[in-house]
Amino acid sequence: MRVVLMGPPGAGKGTQAKRLVERFGMAHLSSGDILRAERAAGTELGEKLKSYMDAGELVPDEIVVEIMAGAVAKQDPQKGLLLDGFPRTIIQAEALDEQLDRLGLPLEAVLIIEADESLLVERITGRRSCPSCGRVYHVKNIPPAKEDICDACGVKLIQREDDTETVVRQRLTAYRSQTEPVIEYYAAGGRKMIKLDGAEPLEEVAEQAAEALGLSG
Ligand SMILES: [Zn+2]
To answer: pLDDT for 1-18, tens place per residue?
Structure first.
């Protein structure tokens, strides 16, 4: 099964990707992880990536495509693929289609986790984490026993800089302008589009995803 997983920040993509991969064994290609690893490895591409990221500029499509194509090429095609965070633009989507078509392994489905903006903002801005053990809380949904204190270590919880409302709204705007056209691209191309309700409990969404992909059981 070759699937692209899409959805705005805060929709629970990471969690769903993890579950699908654990249950069905496809390779999980998270663009965030792969780009970070490339950067850390200090390759020529990694250095280019770093220069854009450090300058706070958008990484050009051709660099993202080259790195992700390399990651796709390393996978065993029989195992299946779950792409997460890529493609993020139409140029990236076209490049991925070309590569998979060349391999004779076209994309089979597009999973889209949808959720209201207000819910996403609430989820992200309520996140707190422990600087010591890394455990993640939410002020409303997963509160610690004692306000702002880690249950495990007794350390004061922190909020990541990226999790403020201003940053979240910027990321949502970027998602709408760049990535929603990718969803339209896939729909126009006659792909199997599977929409999931990100407001539902995680277990429920995971079940729906597996069923829609014909993977349950
Ligand atoms: Zn802790």
So the answer is: 899 999 998 898 888 999
pLDDT for 53 equals 85
Residue 126 C-alpha to ligand 1 middle, in angstroms?
A: 17
Residue of 177, 198, 30, 21 lying closest to 112 (CA atoms): 198
- On whether residue 129 sits in a domain, the answer given is no
**What residues act catalytically?**
13, 88, 127, 160, 171
The domain tally of the chain equals 1
**Ligand 1 midpoint to CA 13 (Å):** 24
Here the CATH number for the domain that contains residue 47 is 3.40.50.300
Distance 107 CA to ligand 1 centre (A): 41
